[in-house]
Amino acid sequence: TSLSTPKKKKRDDGMREHVTGCARSEGYYKIDKKDKLKYLNNSRAFAEEPPADTQVRTGPLRSEQRRLLSSFTGSCDSDLLKFNQLKFRKKKLKFCKSHIHDWGLFAMEPIAADEMVIEYVGQNIRQVIADMREKRYEDEGIGSSYMFRVDHDTIIDATKCGNFARFINHSCNPNCYAKVITVESQKKIVIYSKQHINVNEEITYDYKFPIEDVKIPCLCGSENCRGTLN
Questions:
Q1: Taking a C-beta distance cutoff of 8 angstroms, is the pair 218, 229 a contact?
Q2: 3-state class of 78 per DSSP?
Q3: Distance between CA 181 and CA 46 in Å, rounded?
């Protein structure tokens, strides 16, 4: 027996009307090129035309977003934004022999002015522990101790637990400076660039050691060298 199949209806958009209500139940069938072209033109026109409410609100929303972003970056939270950028996109640095003293840290990419270069990482210890460790390091024959004071009570010790920042040498005419910032209620030391730093240029900052009777000679070689670190 042969059953007559009902004539397929076409919709306004050129696609065939499904009698069963589901395209999968009617099997594979070809679509005429004219019908396909009509459907593609209709769908393309619909995609290019944004909704009416979007056309009205796009301008104000974008300007408001730019205003909030500029006010946010211009506030005191700019250090936090820069720190997040430094965390996810670290500067390319390397340490190698320095003409100033022993090892030094060098830039492997151009660094703009007022950019976070690297965080000074180490163990947060108290002043009492720092005094004990400094004496122990001398007894162990460790010539240099990499301790950086955060505030009156906290010192960062990077002698045995730190990163490349401990290799930064002192200079009386440095291209960077150290700054203490607060991130999630925790104080951190970050090295900022004072000026544009070229590739293979050594990164330096002023240690700002307190004045003492026993002087530590400075070997930075800059024009305005003070002669001593302290």
A1: yes
A2: helix
A3: 51
Give the β-pairing of 154-157 and 116-120. Answer: unpaired
Sign of CA dihedral 78, 84, 87, 93: negative
Report which DSSP code applies to 165. Answer: G
Check residue 227 and give its pLDDT: 86
Domains of the chain: 93-119+163-229 (2.170.270.10), 122-161 (no CATH)
Sign, Cα dihedral of 67, 73, 77, 82: positive
pTM higher than 0.70 = no
Residue 81 and residue 169: Cα distance in Å, rounded? 27
- In angstroms, the CA 146 to CA 156 distance is 8
pLDDT tens digits along 27-56: 766 777 777 667 666 655 655 555 554 444
Which tokens go with 194? Answer: 């004072």
Degrees (nearest 5) of the Cα angle 59, 65, 69? 150
